[in-house]
Structures are given as C-alpha cells and as structure tokens.
Amino acid sequence: MSNFKTRNDFNLYYSDTDSIDIDKPLEPKFIGPELGKMKLEHIFDDARYLAPKVYGGITPFDEYVKVKGLKNPVSFNQLKLLLNKDTNLEIKQDKWYRNISDGNIKIIPEIYTLMINNQKRSLIFDNSNKFVDTRPIILNKGNIE
Q: Partner of 29 at 20 to 30 A CA spacing, among 5, 61, 70, 119?
C-alpha cells in the first residue's frame, strides 16, 4: 500500500487494506488476480468517503454504497447528506448474538447510527458547514493541539 500512497502521478481518494480509489486508471502491471495485485471494482462518476469502510459512489450504471457493519441498504444521497455538520442517520437493523454455552442465537433489534466522527482526526468544515477534510490530532506533552 505504501507504494500507492507515496506516488504523485495520481490523486489518492481512499485506501484500505487491499484497495485504493484514485482519479485515473491504474497501470496494467498492478492489476490481476495474483496476491499483491489490485482488482478494478468501480469507476465512479461521483463519490464520497466518510470514514474507513464507509463510502459510496455513482457509476455509469448504478450506485454503490459500502458501510461496514450495516446490513440494511443506504442510498448514495443519504450518504452525501452526512457531510453536513451535526447530521446523522439512524437505521434500524437486527443484530444476531450467539451464546455458545446456551446453544442459542438471540436476534435483537438495534439502531445503527451513521455519522462522521472525530475519534482519530480533527474534522474540517467549510463556511457552509459541509465536511471537506481532516487534519491529524497531535499530542504534544500531554496536550492536544
């Protein structure tokens, strides 16, 4: 991944353990089914990346949204609304809990709250309170800067 993160011949929009989203086609030598190579999953005309494993986009054929841990679908437009400051989306879903010692599974309805957060980085908003970027949180002699 560091090879792709340090290059300056494309804009890197998102990266995960085994994937990247960039603004132009990747060289063919990096694409393939072999270990260490990439696979083309989407060509987005419009995309938003809210957090690790929380993103979505519009392709020429449909829309794609990925939200880790969420079982019920969310639309791309719902995802885009979350860029507005202090906005969240509550989704009802059933969560399965296994109890191995009792030999059963409980299904409990829960609310999944989707929103951008500042747990790892400081959030930056523009003049219209729309999320535009992040900056690192720096700890200096016990103080957060």
A: 61
